[in-house]
Amino acid sequence: ETPKFDIPSAPSIPSTSTFSVPPVVVDAPPPVPKAPLEPQDVRDARAREAKNKFKELDAEAREVEKQAKIARDIASVAKKEAGEAKAEACETRPGGKFVCIRPFGIGY
Q1: pLDDT range class, residue 105, cuts 50, 70, 90
Q2: Within 13 Å and on the Cβ side, how many CA atoms surround 108?
Q3: Are residues 101 and 94 in contact, defined by beta-carbon separation less than 8 angstroms?
Q4: Positive/negative CA dihedral, 76, 80, 85, 91
Q5: In terms of CB atoms within 10 Å, which end of the chain has fewer, N or C?
Q6: Which DSSP state fits 10?
Q7: Whole-number Å distance between alpha carbons of 88 and 70
Q8: In terms of pLDDT, which residue wins out, 14 or 64?
Q9: Contact criterion met (CB below 8 Å) for 97 and 107
Q10: Is the pLDDT score of 67 beyond 90?
């Protein structure tokens, strides 16, 4: 026969709809006074100079990126050639191309 356990009932929560949150008062920071605007011609000239500087730097960056891509392509070709040369050198070593057991300091 199994022992009997008395389980206490869950506490009852009174249902009230009078839940309220106190109002939150947020003080707005004082407005920052704007400096008087410069004439439109001055602002246009500054924007034009900034745009021209951006164009020059962007063209320079694109040229560097182009040179980097060329260098990366050359390095990729060299890596492929090195892998082929290693595979060829390892063909006659114990373990073949996949394991290629070779002495330390051999350089590949």
Answers
A1: confident
A2: 15
A3: yes
A4: positive
A5: N
A6: P
A7: 27
A8: 64
A9: no
A10: yes
